[in-house]
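Q: Convert this sequence to structure tokens.
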Amino acid sequence: MRLILNAASEEFAATGFDATQIREIAARAGLPKANIYYYFQSKENLYANVLLSFVEPLLEASAALRASDDPAVALHAYIHARIRIVQENPLSSKVFSHELLRGAKHLPQEHKALLQAEAQHNVEFLRNWIERGLIAPVDPEHLMLFIWSATRTYTNLAWQMSLITGTQHPAATDYHNAAATITHMVLSGVMQTNEPFGLSC
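A:
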């Protein structure tokens, strides 16, 4: 099944949901079409499983945010976890991002419910820190949106990023530096510190 999911991620990422054909996924996986239908029954179900393969790590990243009551520790862990997810799952990340840009029309309702519940929990966690004076009184919803958008840049803006970095694909150091930069920006804003910038974050 992992071979099929990998092939499907590659095909959906390259051509999108509507243009992708099961026969192309089968050819990429080196399997008969019947094997694809045996495990996943339909293109829609296979696509949903590709999306779920990215939703599950996102939920794990949210757990990292709430693992500590120290905002500096928790936000650092959350940002680095989200960058690591994109680095480790570049194709399913791209498929997931494209699905969101299309209005999440094919994202199963149970996936949407899980993501919405996690988002609300995360925002309430941030709001609690604000009310206790642990972080600056920023808008928690927009802080969360900023983190989401910043940590998905390497997926959504790959072509633009290549213009800046001069390489077709981000290297491991690019992901590390991205996580460090985003962490510094967020902590500098919400912790109101004057610590010097450094890529060791």
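Confidence is low (pLDDT under 50) at residues 193-201.
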